[in-house]
Each structure stands twice: as structure tokens, then as C-alpha cells.
Known about the structure:
This protein is mostly helical. 60% of the residues lie in helices and 1% in strands. The chain has helices spanning 2-14, 19-29, 48-62, 65-73, 82-103, 110-124, 140-151, 164-182, 199-225, 230-241, 263-278, 280-285, and strands at residues 191-192, 195-196. Strands 1-2 form a two-stranded antiparallel sheet. Strand 1 (191-192) and strand 2 (195-196) form a beta hairpin.
Amino acid sequence: YVILSLACVVAYLFVGLIPFDALTHGMTTVATGGFSTHDESLGYYDSYAVLWVAILFMIVGGLPFSVFVAIFFTRNIPKLDPQVLTFLLIIFFSCTLLILYQNGGQTKSIYANTEYIFNVVSIVTTTGYSSGDFMNYGSLGPVMFFFLIFIGGCAGSTAGGIKVYRFIVLGQVIKTSLRQLIYSKGVFLLRYGNKLVDQDIYRSTVTMICCFFACLILVTLSLAFCGLDFITALSGATTALANVGPGIGEIIGPSGSFKSLDDIEKYILILAMILGRLELLVAMAFFLPIFWKQ
């Protein structure tokens, strides 16, 4: 983590950032924290070179660090983890779809296309940097970015969100359930790549996803009860639980902030951010009476 963070700082220096900005942004890029020293975030620099450095190291932050440990210290390239390939494919197809939609058969500037890629990577990795306003990306932009908020990075990374590997396991559970529906007497094993998945793993995965959406409903209803509109309440709850940053809409979108929210609304979001960062199953265990009887 330290090596990658230092490399990120050096890269920012190389593309023209002053030492203080390079250090602060380097510390929050690999960490997928998204803190910036400017209100406009990395869009302040108006440089596609700066955005590409951020894109590279945000992706690095969203990958499992075990991959880099194996490469740096054992000098062995590990077998490709299914979540790594899925994570990269999600970014590739999302960027391609957005660029094709925005260009509309026309060729736009390098900076414009870089901005599309940057915002997609920022949301998928739950970093939360911004450059421009994806609310202005036609009808596709807000919808796509809303669903990208849920995904998150890989397990073993600094990213938040539900995590890619859980979606893979959930997909295998659905696939196996459909096979059992068709072949009622068949025996089907769940696999993650070439490895068999233990029942405890897919049970915890399904439980985690159910808990996430249950908390999402509760937080959304709480924010709506405080007076926020549906889009702001829903996206605010989602971005808080997933630890992303910007939400959807004019109030908490990439060009807005949470400043205008009331104190009670901020406290609800604070609790949601803490729950999302601690992993919901771990955090919810504190509310079980049996936990305090141990």
C-alpha cells in the first residue's frame, strides 16, 4: 500500500501537481478515499494527464492487494482471480457504452472522453473524485452511475461497495438454483473460478447483499421522513452505505454537496457510512443480544 501510494504521488508530481497537492491526492487515490484540496476535485486541473494518473491508481486501489504482493515479493504472477476480470470488464463496458452514447457518432476531444472514463472509474472504485457533472450525460448518465454506485471494487482492496466477488457468487447461486429447478434430481456444486464454494461463503454472501438492501430501504425511508425528495434520499443512502461520495440529483450530485442537508439527515448518513465501512454483517452483530452474552 505504501509503495503504491508513493508511486501515485510521484506520478502526480510528474504531470505537474505541486508537492502538497500531489501528496494529498496520492494519499486518497490508492486509498479510494476521494478527498481533494479543491472544490472542483481533480476537474480543477483541467488536465487529461492528471485524470489518467488518477484512473490508473484508482483501478489499482480497486484491485485485490494480494495480486501486487504476489508480483512484488514472490515474483510470481498469480492465477487470474475471477473478480479481477469481472471488475475490469465492468469498467471497460461501462466506459465504452458511455463514450458511444455521448459521442453519438461524432468524435469528441481527448479530454471529454477521458472525463467519461475518469468518472466511471471513480464511481466503480468508490473513490468519489469528480470531473464535470455526470448528471449532464443525457438520460443514460444518471441511471448508469446510480447502478455503478452499488458495485464497488474487489475483495482485498481499499474500495467499498458490495464488492465484485459477491455478485459473482450470487450469480452462481442463481445459476445453480435454475439448474436445480430444471433437473430436480441433479446435484450441482457452486464454483468460484476453479474452486468449489463452501456453503458458508455463499450463505454469507446472500445474507450480506440482503442486509445491504434492507439497510438501504431503512436509510432511504429515514431521509425521506426528514423531508428529502426520493432521488436525493435513495442516492444519498446508497452512496453512504457504499462509501462512494457523490449521489444523484442537484443537491448531492457531483456538482452539489451535502452542506445544505439538516443535521439529523447528516447524522443518518454518518451512521450509514460507518455501517458500510465496517461491513454490515460485522456491524449488525453488535445489535444481537447474544453478542453481549459472550
